[in-house]
Design brief:
Oligomer: single chain
Shape: elongated
Distance between the termini: 108 Å
Number of helices: 10
Helix content: 25-40%
Number of strands: 17
């Protein structure tokens, strides 16, 4: 283990005079660091930012320092940002560790200013240079060199250079294991920690990771976050309605190909949250949505002698427009709009479309009817769904009973698409043999 001391010229015995130091890059660093500081698994007390404008090394008040001593005359630090100043009343020494190419170097910083109000630790370029160190910025890296040997290195993030200095001694074997672990993580296409542990026992040529420190499993990987991130699951519970028309779920599906035999290209559904009773309309154009909203509202309010309280839909212009808004204001209906790009906010409508599609597709296939008859399959599917059990209702009834107020009778139900014979009325017969 190499030991390198970075000494300062500030008197730590209380004999220093009142001194004004400055950090001209603080304005630039603070804005960039505020973004970096929120990243997972990064401890700000171990992060140092290389500052070419800082007159001395500076640490946060909670940084683990040794030989801490008070200054007889506090040191005032001038910050370039809006004339801001901070005061250091104490000074101390920092012993930290940094691993470079498998070699762990001990870094000893003397006479480091301790500033309670400091949010991020600053490593002074000028102070390093005065004490015989070369600082090279190249290819996104910051290299600190002493006597031709790289004793510490950091990486550029945004417009700042960051160095991670460990406050505890690093075990060289563990450090090398961590390096190998991260290398094989990338070689194997960013495989997960458990997968890497398993594959090392199943194939040859891969380092054994059984002795990798436990903390490695939680190491942050930028690439994994960008390539594997998914939405968090949505809560599976919602507040149920207590009466019919308290909340109506609605959505539009289409255009559907092929066009139905009657010209329909879209499906508009309305699902009552209380009874789960569904009504569907076949539309030729999106412009018909407003008309059918008014038609549905008139029919259901007349039936129940009650008003629709809430209308849940997405932000599509077929729902959110002046005509529908004015109608809702007139009727006292409250919009419940979902978040754009988040259909999970209205899972009732999304799941209903899936159920309708599955049932209608099966009936259409089983009937051997032309695909242009899909609209009839949809109407039949909705009729049957309203008379079938659903997990949305826990009281042992089907939606039609809760909506219509009576138990459905399905004795006359026939198979969709079955053979049927139509009687021609006498008035329409052209001869006695028709």
């Amino acid at each position: 283990m190499a030991n390198h001391e970075l000494e300062e010229d500030i008197n730590a015995e209380g004999k220093s005079h009142r001194r004004n130091l400055h950090t001209s890059n603080w304005g630039k660093i603070s804005s960039e660091v505020m973004r970096l500081g929120s990243r997972p698994n990064v401890n700000n007390t171990n992060v140092w930012y290389v500052d070419s404008g800082a007159s001395g090394h500076m640490v946060q008040g909670n940084y683990p320092v040794i030989n801490k001593k008070g200054l007889k005359d506090p040191v005032v630090i001038r910050v370039a940002k809006d004339g801001l100043t901070m005061t250091a009343c104490n000074v101390g020494e920092v012993i930290a560790y940094n691993e470079v190419n498998g070699v762990v170097n001990t870094i000893h910083l003397k006479n480091v200013l301790i500033i309670d109000d400091l949010k991020f630790n600053l490593l002074s370029v000028s102070r390093l240079e005065v004490n015989g160190y070369d600082i090279i910025f190249t290819q996104g890296k910051c290299l600190i060199i002493h006597n031709g040997v790289i004793v510490s290195q950091g990486l550029r993030e945004g417009m700042t250079y960051k160095i991670i200095l460990a406050t505890h001694k690093i075990d060289t074997h563990a450090a090398l294991a961590v390096i190998d672990h991260k290398l094989w993580h990338r070689r194997l296409g960013h495989i997960g920690q458990q997968g890497l542990l398993k594959v090392s026992k199943m194939v040859d040529g891969i380092m054994t990771v059984a002795d990798v420190p436990e903390r490695v499993s939680s190491d942050f990987c930028d690439t994994c976050v960008q390539g594997k991130q998914v939405k968090l699951p949505f809560p599976g519970t919602r507040t149920p309605s207590t009466r019919p028309l308290e909340r109506i779920h609605s959505d539009l599906c289409g255009p559907i190909s092929p066009v139905a035999y009657n010209g329909s290209k879209y499906l508009l559904i309305f699902v009552d949250d209380y009874s789960h009773f569904t009504v569907v309309f076949g539309l030729k154009s999106k412009t018909e949505v407003a008309y059918h909203i008014k038609l549905y509202e008139a029919r259901v309010t007349s039936r129940f002698n009650s008003k629709i309280s809430n209308f849940r839909c997405d932000n599509g212009t077929e729902f959110v427009n002046h005509e529908v808004k004015d109608f809702f204001i007139e009727r006292g209906i409250q919009y419940e709009l979902t978040i754009p790009g988040t259909p999970e906010n209205d899972g009732v409508s999304e799941r209903m479309f899936r159920t309708i599609g599955e049932k209608g597709r099966c009936m259409l296939i089983g009937s051997n009817l032309p695909k242009s008859f899909w609209i009839e399959a949809v109407y039949t599917a909705v009729y049957l769904i309203n008379r079938s059990p659903t997990r949305a209702l826990c009281d042992g009834v089907v939606p039609a009973e809760k909506w219509l107020g009576k138990r459905p009778n399905l004795s006359k139900l026939k198979v969709f698409g079955c053979m049927a014979y139509m009687l021609i009325p006498k008035a329409q017969r052209k001869s006695k043999f028709d």
